[in-house]
Each structure stands twice: as C-alpha cells, then as structure tokens.
Amino acid sequence: MKLCTMGLGYIGLPTSIMFANYDVDVVGVDIKREAVDMLNNGQIHIEEPGLQEALEKAIAKGTFRASVEPEPADAFIIAVPTPNKDDEYKSMDITFVMQALENIIPFLEKGNVVIVESTIAPRTMDDFVKPRLEEAGFVIGEDIFLVHCPERVLPGQIMHELIHNNRIVGGVTPMCTEKGAEVYATFVQGELIKTNARTAEMSKLMENTFRDVNIALANELTKVCNELDINALDVIEMANKHPRVNLHTPGPGVGGHCLAVDPYFIIAKAPEQAQIINLSRQVNKSMPSYVVESAEKLLAKHNGKKITVFGLTYKGNVDDIRESPAMEIYEHLHALPEYEVVAYDPHVKLSFVEKDLEKALDGSDLVLVLSDHNEFKELTSAYFSKMNVAQVFDTKNVVKEYADNINYINYGNLYK
Ligand code: SAJ
C-alpha cells in the first residue's frame, strides 16, 4: 500500500511514521519546507517520546519521505489544523481541510481511500467534503471511499495510543467504512469501531466536550463551596467514592487545542440546543479571573507585591502553552502595575521565564501554582525559605508535601 499524508503536525507525523514502520510506503506532505527538510534529514520537528527513533527506523527501511507536494497513492490521510473562527459562536474553520482536499484531487484515482483525521464539526464530511469530491466527478462509495477517522491520542503517549486505542471509523457509505478499516488494520490493535461519518464526527467532539462539561461542574462546585465554607476537594473525593460518580478536577481553567476548541464546533452548529455545553465553556473561561481575584485577596492580607507563578503550560509535564489558562493569568497579573510577577516553568523555554528557582522565589509574597508538573510535586518547604511571605496558592492541588510553616491554600480552603 502507498499512503499520502497531508499535514505533518503532531498527529499527521506520528501516524505517517507508524504506517511506514509497518511497511507502508509513505509520503508525508507539509507546506513548511523547513519541516520537510528536517524530516528528510532524519530529524523530527515536534516533541513526542519515541517519535525520533521511529522516524530513524522508517528512513533506514526507506518507507518514509517528506515532501511539499502530494503524489498518487492508494490512501490519503488529511491531518491538518481545524481552528476556531473569529465569529459569534467560534465555529470550525474548514479552510485547511478543504485546501488539503483541493491539493490531492488532481492525484486521485478510482479505488482510492480518502480519510479525514482532523477534528471536524458535525456533518462536515456529508455537507462539504463529499460534495466537493462529487463535483470533481467521483462517485463516493464506488470510485472513492471517503472516511472520517478522528484522532484521539494523548500528547506524550501518542506512539503507544496509536496502536492500542480503539479507533472510530466513520464512512460516508458502508463500503467506505470497510475500506477505511482495512487501512487502519495495518497497525491498530484496539477495536476498529465501524460507524457512519456523522456519528464519528459527533463522537469525537463529545469525548472532549464531556471532559469540558465535567471540569466545569468541578470548577462551579469549587466556587459554590468557597461561598459556603465547604472543602470542595473533599466533596469531590467523597462523591467519587460512589460507584457511578466521576467528578473531574477543578483548576485554573481548561486549555490546550482540544477541550477549549472542540465544544464550540457543536455550539456553532446548534446554538439553541447546546445550552449546557455553552454554559460550561463560560464557566471554564471564567476561572482565570477567579484565580486572579483570589490571588489579589491573598496578597492584600500581607500587603504583598511579588508573585511567583509556577507553571505556564495548559497542563502538567508538557511544553505546550496554546490556549493555556496559566498564560492568561500570568499576562493579566503582569499587566497590573502594583505587582512584580515572575514566571517559573522548567518545561517552557521562553526568554521571560526565570530559570533559577531560588531567584524566582526570592522575596516573593505568593507562589501561584498553575500547572501540575512533576517538578512541583517534589518541592519541600526548604525551597520556600527565601520568600518574604511563605504562602502558596495551589490551583492544581499538586503540591502535597509542604510543611506547617507555609500557608498552603488550595481550592479546598481558599476563603478560610
Ligand atoms: N483539566 C482539568 N481538570 C481535569 C482534567 C483536565 O482542569 O480533571 C484541564 C487540563 O489541565 C487542561 C485541559 O483540561 O488544561 C485539557 O487537558 P486533557 O488532559 O483533558 O486533554 P488534552 O487536551 O491534552 O487531550 C484531549 C484528550 N481527550 C480526552 O481525553 C477525551 C485526547 O485523548 C484527545 O486526542 C485530544 O484531547 C484531542 O486531540 O482531541
């Protein structure tokens, strides 16, 4: 089999290399020439454990090449970004998907399978992708087999999850589904769950939306409990002991390019109906202001001036600051002239980030923990001896080892 992948980002590249390691002849296409050159020289341009070794293996076998131009192939995979638009409901921007489709149309031959892996709004395959291919003269389900097979892998564990996760295969016709499943059977050891395209689109979106709504509930619970002087974290622990309850964890907000993006694709398609989804987005988006207000109240108690922000990434143990609520909080505090704000994050290599932990803590009046990096779990009270006022506000409930001489505040005891 020969495969042509459109987009060599954090999904397209690992997917291409995985196929290449299973003896599929792969050409990976990207518009960024530097990325293409790097890959052809055997060097990955994104961070992902195990990916570099896998690329080297594929290059040694001669089964992977990167290019700026598509080529004829048996199967095509589109794995390009689908950001939000700047409109009222932040609907899905289909531009990159349609551009990739346009680029492969001249190379399509009867019998080809065309797969969209990018996360897309419900009905995108039926209402946009299929009509464009029909316009180009193909009969879907006879000449071309069109499938939505959403990516569902967790950054940091992509190489493992690509093989072992269950995979949703949603064809535009039943024959499309069968042909799509044959492609992934190359390496997927999880179940290949066969369905239609629109069910696949909505299932993927609901996975991330479920998490977003559940986190919103936990964040709202935190606000309610702080009003009533109840420990929200204890409540969550108690409630989750029930066999059918699984409340997620509150935090400084929800970030990343999935949970903070995908729910809008549903809202924009059915704004009248998608009430809880919309409200949950608003609750999660309100959390950075809630953290800023709370931090200011804590500082005011001691007339504090210096804030040390621990963590800028959207979640722990990654270097990704896209849609990060931690960045939003940092920028908000930094813009206030009354405070000196220092950011410390061992995973982020930006010039304004302080690399020296002692310097970051020196004379500080408040440590504000915003990402749950492992490094923060290991800190003990000795590190905080240089602070002016030893108080820690831990929005991720990650730092559990602090001693009594530190005023430790988390979402469970915020306004006590
Ligand atoms: N978060 C909380 N509380 C929680 C869990 C997460 O506040 O209890 C926050 C995190 O701090 C972060 C955000 O939510 O800001 C999202 O983090 P995440 O770990 O839930 O998810 P992502 O965005 O890294 O990856 C998700 C995954 N989806 C699901 O687990 C349903 C992944 O499998 C998807 O492939 C990915 O989205 C995607 O590409 O759609």
UniProtKB/TrEMBL annotation:
InterPro entries cross-referenced by the UniProt entry: 6-PGluconate_DH-like_C_sf, Cyclophilin-type_PPIase_dom, NAD(P)-bd_dom_sf, UDP-Glc/GDP-Man, UDP-Glc/GDP-Man_DH_C, UDP-Glc/GDP-Man_DH_C_sf, UDP-Glc/GDP-Man_DH_dimer, UDP-Glc/GDP-Man_DH_N
Domain PPIase cyclophilin-type: 118-348
GO molecular function, one term: oxidoreductase activity, acting on the CH-OH group of donors, NAD or NADP as acceptor
SMART domains cross-referenced by the UniProt entry: UDPG_MGDP_dh_C
Sorted UniProt keywords: NAD, Oxidoreductase
Cross-referenced Pfam families: UDPG_MGDP_dh (PF00984), UDPG_MGDP_dh_C (PF03720), UDPG_MGDP_dh_N (PF03721)
Top-rank taxon: Bacteria
GO BP terms, alphabetized: polysaccharide biosynthetic process
PROSITE patterns, per database record: CSA_PPIASE_2 (PS50072)
NADP in keyword set: no
NCBIfam families assigned: NDP-sugDHase
UniProt family annotation: Belongs to the UDP-glucose/GDP-mannose dehydrogenase family.
Full protein name: UDP-N-acetyl-D-mannosamine dehydrogenase
Species, as recorded: Oceanobacillus zhaokaii
The organism's taxonomic lineage, starting at the top: Bacteria, Bacillati, Bacillota, Bacilli, Bacillales
